[in-house]
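PROTOCOL LOG
Step 1. Enter all chains and additional molecules of the complex.
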Amino acid sequence: QQQVKQSPQSLIVQKGGISIINCAYENTAFDYFPWYQQFPGKGPALLIAIRPDVSEKKEGRFTISFNKSAKQFSLHIMDSQPGDSATYFCAASGNTGFQKLVFGTGTRLLVSP
Amino acid sequence: NAGVTQTPKFRILKIGQSMTLQCAQDMNHNYMYWYRQDPGMGLKLIYYSVGAGITDKGEVPNGYNVSRSTTEDFPLRLELAAPSQTSVYFCASSYSGGRQTQYFGPGTRLLVL
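Step 2. Run joint prediction.
Step 3. Record the structure below.
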């Protein structure tokens, strides 16, 4: 119930294409869904986050789509660029107790020039 | 602001040795965390702290210990290192829990032989 399942494990997209990474969860107490971006040799950094009261959030080329009934959310990267090549982690946290972040297993994205 | 700093960057340990991974933050954050990152496994929470003098176990605490004597510092102690502790360790901090952004350090790569 505490898991966040992320797919695909790796993704290759051509420059200018759309990258799509999907996550699914079981715990209905989760109410905060961030995405973290990690470049090689660096720590993860918050990219974008959404709460379940909206179905979509957009920041520049990055969009989170959220489907509460299906308990799924996804990251779309429009006009993907080689500089977007990184590992992306979805995560979720609840609204009771410690509210720890539960991370997905990560997706390694490579955007080819 | 230096943010979250970690030392050392890389260390090789022999089985049975002990060491302390250092973590410091200068953002006056109350919450601090230790994660380990293994290939294909995402980020697993080892220990966390909600303030000086208060620590608690995460998902994978066995073989580790922590202390939090100040707001700034949150060292992670490995006793009797084992090959299973070969990993990349990340320290993170946030103002509070759950929905607050976690800021990660650059990581410590540990190899136990």
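Step 4. Note key features.
Chain B has a mean pLDDT of 95.
The interface with chain A takes residues 4, 40-45, 48, 50, 56, 58, 90, 92, 97-99, 101-107 of chain B (CB under 8 Å).
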